[in-house]
Specification:
heterodimer, A: mainly alpha, 8 helices, 70% helix, globular, B: mainly alpha, four-stranded mixed β-sheet, two-stranded antiparallel ribbon, 10 helices, elongated
Amino acid sequence: MRAKKLEDDAWQMIFQQHYPRLYSYLYYQVGNADVAEDLCGLVFERAVKHIHRFNPRKGGLAGWLTRIAQNLARDYHRRNRTRAPEPLELNEAWIAHGKDPSALLLAQESSRYLYQALQQLTEEQRNVILLRFLAQMKLPEVARTLGKSVGAVKSLQHRALATLRKELKKLGYYE
Amino acid sequence: MNKLTDRLDNAITAMLANRAYPQDEGLEELLQPARMLLTAPVPAPARRTAQARLTQALAMQRQRQPAQWLIALRGLLRPGTLVSVAVAATMIVLIYLSAKALPGEMFYPIKQTGVAFDSHLPRTETSRARYYRDLSEKQLAEIEALVAKQLPVPTEALTQYRATWQYIRAHYPDENAEFIASAETQAERWQAIRPRLAPEQQGLAQEILNLLQAANKPTPPPPSPMPEIQPLATPAPTATKWRVTPAPALPLHPTPRTATPTATMTSTPTPGPTATPTPGHTATPTPEPTATSTATVTSTPVPVANSTPTPTPTPTATTRMSHPTRTPTPTPHPTRTPHPTHTPGHKKTRTPESKPTKTHK
């Protein structure tokens, strides 16, 4: 594997392929674009450092990187346990999105609703939703990452979506 | 409920893969937040920062990267590999330690296990003979080493040494030059160490010496190329009255080692011995690879008195045999194996049978 030989090209390819979904996952985990960016950089740093431990037979690279991201997010929450979840930050990062003002406003609003609704889920449910939809992991990979059976993850996914809908409705997102 | 979770997951999988999924009213409410999650807006990431960190991490890691041999060593240090390596190393150490072990020592049973395994390996007849010759020499060397170190020789070691020679005597012919030479040397060495064995082991030591001496004695040559067939000494209760006498002169083939003796069988109504050759007196020559002699025995029974023998089809036996070196006399050694003429791996020789059938009037 070229990545194990620390070849630049291989790592740039990995970065381009996995950065967006890792960033999205971390953004909705921590609720802050700067922190998500920082953690995302850290994911790749750790991946480079521990690539010799990566065993393709135990799962794909996507799953391995997501597990690193998940551990970093967990550490972040542990360190900031006493602090209440931050309201989703709206900053210049959104402006850099390059959308027209009305679309930008709508995206910001959707993002805030979603983040608030996600905070109402249990930690397990939130993990399943973020890994499945934002990290775009397959169900067996989610199950392996969380140490649960596929059936249990399906069940958690179902309950999480039901709760999300209820919360979004409560927030006024759905009529 | 299970069906609902399965249907829901199938729809989500299709959505994630940008595939169409069947419309299901029961799922619609749940799929609304799912769609929202799939298009969840995120602020534009400042990729440059993360990318710069990746480049820096790669540069640092290259500096820190251990040598290839260390990486390979790390691979070896995985638990599974480590256990296998440990087991293999232990085996090697045990085999090494047991290789020089002497009877009575801690690792000697391991050595014996190896010998037992080795003895069952498939070999040709020649290499098997060599294996047993070498084994006997190793066993003797072990006993000698114990004696030299003034350590007690376990009786088991003597028993095993004796068993090896018993096996050799039972399975290999006397004419095997390798064994004769080896037995001679070993007999000399044995006589040197025998007095230093424990008194209670002297009987066993003598048995071994007898075996070795019997093995290195050359077999005397036969009295005649054709063994004489003599009747049984015990009188037969039946009216069998045949005596077989060989022809006085045996015509020989031009080939120096090939003889075709012709024996004429004459029936004489003598009252007693039957013309049944005893198994001990049969000519069972030990074959040598090149020496063959063909003996043709033609019996012509002549009836005398009341007995009228019916000529049998042809009691002519053509025997492939080496120059017959084995005498029909009993073996002089008390430790001879019950079947001294058994020669494994060689073509069995046939004894010319001269037992004609007859009818009585």
